[in-house]
Amino acid sequence: MSAARSVLSLSKILQPWTGLKGSTVSVMRPVMCTRREKSSYTVSVLLKGRDVLLVLGDLICLTDWGLHRFCCVPVDFEVVNVDSSLTSEDEINNAVTAIRRNGVALKGNIETNHNLPPSHKSRNNLLRTSLDLYANVMHCQTLPGVQTRHKDIDIIIIRENTEGEYSSLEHENVPGVVESLKIITRVNSLRIAEYAFRQAREKGRRRVTAVHKANIMKLGDGLFLQCCKEVAAGYPDITFDNMIVDNTTMQLVSKPQQFDVMVMPNLYGNVVSNVCAGLVGGPGLVPGANYGKDYAVFETATRNTGKSIANKNIANPTATLLASCLMLDHLGLHDYASMIRKAILRTLSETRLHTADLGGQGTTSEVVQSIMKEVQKGGPLTSEKI
Amino acid sequence: MSSMMILLVLKCLSQIIFYCICFAFQMQTVTIIPGDGIGPEISTSVIKIFEAAKVPIQWEERNVTAIKGPGGKWMIPPEAKESMDKSKIGLKGPLKTPIAAGHPSMNLLLRKTFDLYANVRPCVSIEGYKTPYTDVDLVTIRENTEGEYSGIEHVIVDGVVQSIKLITEEASRRIAEYAFEYARNNQRNSVTAVHKANIMRMSDGLFLRKCREVAENFKDVKFTEMYLDTVCLNMVQDPTQFDVLVMPNLYGDILSDLCAGLIGGLGVTPSGNIGANGVAIFESVHGTAPDIAGMDLANPTALLLSAVMMLRHMGLHGHAKKIETACFDTIRDKKVLTKDLGGNSKCSEFTAEICRRVQDLD
């Protein structure tokens, strides 16, 4: 942990220095790996706090440290701090600029104090809408070695990420009467439906289910459903059906195996993804990805801050590490991604070293060490195949 | 002549005695709305079981269909409204809403007519009906009149729709007060407000503020707040951590069905709707199941447990306990179960078994 801290302080000193390409600030230099190829990618990493290196930040450092040391991944990380306690939006705007520059980011959740007035918007939401990260994708799979009530779950949840109930358009008409607007547009509904069906086809999935409440919200969810149906007509090889959101949650807790790919507006996506994450073992296991036309941001699927367990070395690093694997896949570094992923799964299932959330006794650093060992065991890729 | 007089006097006397007995035992009238599909047969089951348990209730059967009243407004039949206003307590089976009927759903009409502002669903694991979740014991209390279901939607321009979620101080305060009173009256330890105020700062923020204010008057009940997504995440991992949950309309809809799924589905989940002016309507929340209607295959458990909830609401705790125990014992025994519970018996057989147990418990 202290090694990571020293890397970060070193990085702060190096900050003004610009890299050879002149376009990005290279912050974390690989110290140990001499045979690494020149970095082709720079990734923005968003930490949550300013003074305290929170668990997520440490993990990212460790991941990076581990990756550089053992895997020699050609990725540089640019660290961007966002302090959730500040009221100015400067920091998040800087973060958005950094992501625009790099194109890809790895992110921790930024806490929103919901007791502050409405002018203080959710930083996470601001990030998503500024970068137009319209698709939130979460792949929920039963992981080997993890005890859960339900088995054989394999669901891809695709959630519209920019509009719906998260439009942050609210007003108080008269004191004591508040209206909150849920916006559904044809353009965004078609876009997310198109994304869902394309993903389903690319990944060889058979069925897409649209989740909605169109029996009550006839116009809003009705429009969403209509758009999904229109897009479905262009994919005759994929079965399309729909389910009302309350029935969906009921089915998820009794027979989750029936679902394949699910597409839905923002709020239902929030509910369904959290239910599914809980079904496969909890927030510490599932990675999430936010895709836009030009940018991609990777984070844990359930977007928890983990405030109560921060800095105690008990958090489960799996979700963040798997998110970084998704990032590597996105960058085209598939070999590195699958190597790290295999190591993570082996730690989960074979060594059975689990953190507290999975009922185990392992610490965060022990789990990461174990993953690094598995990567090393994995052999050649770590030093020869570069 | 004198014998006829004696007979007449005896008849009058017996009538007087009957009414005195009724008065002494406080026979309460309950409006029963059998509903559609399997509604009539499960209602009959409940009536039979109540008879076996000698519950001091007299039933007044009414039907609800949407009729157009003066001024063109859709309403429920006046006889139904009158009966409910007088009795204040109702038991309702499933009602069908034909698509494109031109009138709003019957459930919505009932809700509006009696201002049924609170939907209460106790979810308790049923021993003998195995689900992946054991020891579930929580209650969801859902605000039932506003929120996301206000029905106010507009097409702004072609391709852009806005749906309005309405949160008012009055409705939020009312539901919060009901939730805390329920917790107090039913010996529950804590009330958790479920919200998404990080995103919907003003609307859910208002709801949350009202809950906090009401909590001040109920210091004996613990009050916590939790994000909707965190509740969902934790609910499917460990539902035992939850007690009473209070929330606006949409979250309530989703969570109450989620919790019903934990204990076995809508076929075994009771539900009650509390209105202003003391009206309370208890109902089964499953569908009308037209494919098995009239075939004596239906499972009356949901309606029966709702009726038990109704008895508790009326203060008839002894009878409630007796019937509930008989029902759970029958399910636990697994000898006489309807098809959806994994057995082969008919609805009438299941009912008869519960009646037998009720009488044995006397």
UniProtKB/TrEMBL annotation, chain A:
GO molecular function list: magnesium ion binding; NAD binding; oxidoreductase activity, acting on the CH-OH group of donors, NAD or NADP as acceptor
Stretches assigned to coiled coil: none
PROSITE patterns: IDH_IMDH
Any one GO BP annotation for this protein: isocitrate metabolic process
UniProt-annotated location(s): Mitochondrion
GO CC terms, sorted: mitochondrion
Subunit structure: Heterooligomer of subunits alpha (IDH3A), beta (IDH3B), and gamma (IDH3G) in the apparent ratio of 2:1:1. The heterodimer containing one IDH3A and one IDH3B subunit and the heterodimer containing one IDH3A and one IDH3G subunit assemble into a heterotetramer (which contains two subunits of IDH3A, one of IDH3B and one of IDH3G) and further into the heterooctamer.
Stated name of the protein: Isocitrate dehydrogenase [NAD] subunit, mitochondrial
Species assigned in the record: Pygocentrus nattereri (Red-bellied piranha)
UniProtKB/TrEMBL annotation, chain B:
Primary subcellular site in the record, as a coarse category: mitochondrion
SMART domains referenced in this protein's UniProt entry, alphabetically: Iso_dh
GO BP: any one term: tricarboxylic acid cycle
Matching SUPFAM superfamilies: Isocitrate/Isopropylmalate dehydrogenase-like
Gene3D superfamilies xrefs: Isopropylmalate Dehydrogenase (3.40.718.10)
Domain Isopropylmalate dehydrogenase-like: 29-354
GO molecular function, one term: isocitrate dehydrogenase (NAD+) activity
Domain of life (superkingdom): Eukaryota
GO CC terms: mitochondrion
Location within or outside the cell: Mitochondrion
Cofactor: Mg(2+); Mn(2+)
Alphabetic keyword roster: Magnesium, Metal-binding, Mitochondrion, NAD, Oxidoreductase, Signal, Transit peptide, Tricarboxylic acid cycle
Endpoints of the signal sequence: 1-24
UniProt catalytic activity: D-threo-isocitrate + NAD(+) = 2-oxoglutarate + CO2 + NADH
Function of the molecule: Catalytic subunit of the enzyme which catalyzes the decarboxylation of isocitrate (ICT) into alpha-ketoglutarate. The heterodimer composed of the alpha (IDH3A) and beta (IDH3B) subunits and the heterodimer composed of the alpha (IDH3A) and gamma (IDH3G) subunits, have considerable basal activity but the full activity of the heterotetramer (containing two subunits of IDH3A, one of IDH3B and one of IDH3G) requires the assembly and cooperative function of both heterodimers.
Family from the record: Belongs to the isocitrate and isopropylmalate dehydrogenases family.
Oligomer and partners: Heterooligomer of subunits alpha (IDH3A), beta (IDH3B), and gamma (IDH3G) in the apparent ratio of 2:1:1. The heterodimer containing one IDH3A and one IDH3B subunit and the heterodimer containing one IDH3A and one IDH3G subunit assemble into a heterotetramer (which contains two subunits of IDH3A, one of IDH3B and one of IDH3G) and further into the heterooctamer.
Name of the protein described by the UniProt record: Isocitrate dehydrogenase [NAD] subunit, mitochondrial
Native species: Pygocentrus nattereri
Gene: IDH3A
